[in-house]
Amino acid sequence: MENVITALFLLPDVYDAVALHEALEGELADEATLVEIVCTRSNAELLALRDAYTTLYQRDLVSDFHCKSDGDFRRLLMSIILGIRDEDPDETIDPIQLRDQARMEAQLLFEPISEKLSAVQFSSTFVLMFSNPSHLQLRYTFREFEKIVKMETEKVISRFVTSNVAYPLLALVRIAKNKNAYFADLLFQALQNSAVDEKRLIRLIVSRSEKDLGNIKTEFQNAYRISMDTAISGDNSYSYRSVLSALIRD
Question: pTM for this structure?
């Protein structure tokens, strides 16, 4: 119960900063938490949580992350955590412009396949191409790329990309395609663990409760044929779940 009460009383940027600090303080970084938070927050939210991290720990989040990560995983998340990704443009953007840009980027993504480059070179290309475009632009690019390769982008990544960066790249694809479905899947996974991932479950619901939890509930229901409330409140031995259920029903 303490974890959920703490989550409810902390400001969102402070709560994220605490979670990232916990993810970085062990001998091995908790990459799942790093990806979940860094890859789903807006530029403004990333800036706020970096400031909160500095205030709380008198340390720089970017420097701490740099020390606890390496390779393409570091390159990808560092580029995102700096908060310079293009945000989704408004509805006045020309779809032809998006499509033309997508076709060019899709060809660049295809080059490592057509030229039979190594997994390392393949991964570096994908990291470069995924780092800065808006989620809307990425959706267009994935659509054009999948026309070329006749395969889902997720399957291409699983087949060709090195294991150390496949997880965040797959997360970015899923977030760009359907962010609500991505969160629904994380919630389902947290509930399926033999030892329920309490902190993640709490963080996912509390952090989305005033944003898009209603949409996530719909995706959860559609994907797993059970309501999120039923799935979470099913085991009454966890007292904190009654609080989460109240947030879901709100």
Answer: 0.92
